[in-house]
Amino acid sequence: MHREIQKNRETALVYLDRSGGLQKFMHDCKKYNDSKQSYAVYRFIISINPSDIAELDATLGNYILHNPIQAAQIFQSISILLKPTHLPPLPSYVLSLSAFPFNYTSQRFYMSEGIAIAMGTVTKYTQGARFLCTEETCPFSEGFRYIRVHLPGATESATVRNDFVCSLCSSPLQEDMKFRVLGDKQIVEIIDAKVLNALKGYSNAKSHFRIQAFTVFLRDELANKMKIGDHYKIIGIPACVQNGLQATACIEVNSVQLCKPNGPSFVSDNFKHLLSLTSSSCWRFTAILANVFASEVVPPGTYNTLKLAILLSLVQTCEKENADYLDLLIVTNDTLVIDRLLNYSICLLPRGIRHPPSSEIFPSVSKDKHGTGSASIQACSAVLAKGGICYIGDLSSYKKDKLELLQSVLESRMTTVFIPGKKYGEETDQQVTISVQTNFWSFVDADSSSKKHIQKDNFLIGQMDVSLIPPNLLDVFGLLIYSEFPSCQLSSPLVHHILKKAINPEAMLYKVSQQFRMQDYKEFILFAKNLHVELSSEAENLIQGYYLASRRVRRDSSHGSTLSASALKILISLSKAHTKLSLRKKVLEEDVLIAILLLESSLTLKHGKSALCIAPNPVFPFDLTDENSLQQRDSYLMECHHQLLKFIGAYGPGIHLNTNEE
């Protein structure tokens, strides 16, 4: 046995020498040498590459992977923390947060992954402590006989408490406080990423699963390494923590790695074929995409403007700071169909979240449930929808304070959580700022105004009554869309669709549903949203010209220009989104035109018409039924482009634009 330990120590030394571990060890020793603090225990982190060490010595490699706590002692009797760089990609090393049984007794390394849904504040724990015998004549009343160090899964009372006794004379032991070494500890709750499917608000009757949150401990250099709402891969040792009568299974984390979602690198053959068929025009591909989109929920050809806006918002989702966001607010007198359409659409993204009315949209604070009394920040719909869509349902169902908070978040893309120190055992109050990287969707029932005795006639375009929504909130929502029940010639197919689906929910009612399936749209959106697009100089000039001209013509005597600075951001976001949806990388004037027509339509709903007179339904002025109707739409959009250039020429500040009509 002694010979085996000696052999393992020699192998460990060779490995440390080859991997640069000895250099790091010397550097850490210097840090302790230079410190003026007394340490009961010196703590060293050793990075272990399992494949390298197994190649050097299979027995030691196996021992480290399966008995990490005992293996640490091979590296001498100091506080050693072994950190594997990775684990073998085998099922026996994966710990599922939703599978049963959960093996927390093995005390070996496992790999797991999940989303951080609650974050505790960083508190202190005891890394190591020195105890002395209280009997002066006992040899153990001095020296370093009783050193206690933290082990995975141990509570604070396992390391330091006042009922330890001397093994030699049975006298009580007392801690020498000068030698106590403290470290940082953070408790995080993570949950299996499958939970995102449950939060879409769309249930597949065939799949039933139970998922619960799971506790992980981040210590020392890993504290604050996780952000709430992010998806992580972790390596750690499972343990069971006892708190009174309650036992909690948890993982002591050794390493944390952020999981980046990879979009598919392809689009379906049917979409490629459609793209080649429509290559003669920059407008046709996206028009057909919108026309046949969500044919499982609404008939092709209905709600085209709204469906195009939904697709544009879906491709403008990413997890970067200062991204181009595109929020949608729909005013409708047909809330049932709109709700179904929006609910269907969020299922196309991995992070499409349907906000449940019973919970909070933004993060909240509660007491940590592990008995520490410290604060824990709970995630919420907006944070879980990071890089996706947070669909919050009917806007009029929220109280004034929630709407004010929503407005503040839409303006800054940040939310602040206040933690009162007195309540959570801290000396000072804390404020934690969390970024909110998601698009928000909501709707308002146009008919609800009739309950306030407002005449229906007010709901003409440009005179719409939106008194139910605070004006400032209306301004920060990127796009306002009025989606009325389809006109007479279209309402009949919609009624037939609803009745047929009620009788047979699984029925494929249209051929296009088989050509462009939900899965095809999922892959298409994941591909398109990851495209990196740039503005051409022509597109930039057109955006600037329209924005400056609109600021001049959209004015009132008391507030100056009714066009806010955020309109410029929305224009750029819409233009980029249309480019992505067209599977191009350069924003053209044609993309900007669609963006301007959508924005101008939104502004007309809020503030009435301007000198740039647009049709009531400017992006889809007539039904798309055949090649001829697509050609007709192209001619109409080219005329719109001409009118736009005339508008900029008349009201813009002399910006030179190319008015060449080819």
UniProtKB/TrEMBL annotation:
This is Minichromosome maintenance domain-containing protein 2. Residues 9-80 form the MCMDC2 N-terminal domain. Residues 522-603 form the MCM AAA-lid domain. GO terms for biological process: double-strand break repair via break-induced replication; meiotic cell cycle. It comes from the Eukaryota. GO terms for cellular component: nucleus. Keywords: DNA damage, DNA repair, Meiosis, Phosphoprotein.
